[in-house]
């Protein structure tokens, strides 16, 4: 579900009551662990964490007017989603995350194309999402991204 919110605060204010606490806790973990140069803004109707043009002038290859995506957080119809392309860009990062997830959570990991879905609000590994956020620097992400689009 894409939000029409134009700011993070508006997005948060419009959340259903049962989603406010988990989204706010996830958001805080992300904000506390963002690599230097990544900023929060609304992106694709979600809370977006992007590398702005001031840091990476080329922008997103799909639409260079947009900043380079790093991570997104969204309240979807049936779940909360964390979108992390970084996770899919390095096998060792994916291996680390899936291993840690199974140690910390009692429910099966539910992943889709660049997203991690949380259907059980009481089984969200908040600190693990914070760790994931901090695993790749802005410079590393730009290098990974540029290598991928050159293929």
TrEMBL record:
The UniProt entry, under Pfam families, shows: DUF1801
Q: Report the residue ranges that make up the YdhG-like domain in this protein.
A: 19-134
What InterPro entries does its record include? YdhG-like
Q: What is this protein called?
A: DUF1801 domain-containing protein
Q: Which organism is it from?
A: Flavivirga jejuensis
């Amino acid at each position: 579900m894409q939000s029409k919110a134009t700011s993070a605060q508006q997005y948060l204010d419009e959340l259903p009551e049962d989603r406010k606490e988990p989204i706010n806790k996830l958001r805080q973990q992300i904000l506390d662990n963002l690599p230097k140069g990544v900023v929060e803004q609304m992106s694709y109707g979600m809370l977006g964490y992007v590398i702005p043009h001031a840091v990476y002038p080329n922008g997103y290859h799909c639409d260079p007017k947009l900043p380079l995506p790093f991570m997104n957080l969204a309240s979807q119809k049936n779940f909360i989603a964390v979108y992390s392309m970084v996770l899919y860009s390095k096998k060792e990062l994916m291996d680390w995350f899936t291993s840690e997830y199974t140690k910390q959570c009692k429910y099966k990991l539910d992943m889709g194309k660049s997203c991690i879905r949380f259907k059980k609000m009481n089984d969200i590994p908040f600190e693990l999402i914070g760790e994931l956020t901090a695993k790749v620097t802005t410079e590393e992400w730009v290098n990974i991204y540029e290598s991928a689009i050159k293929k």
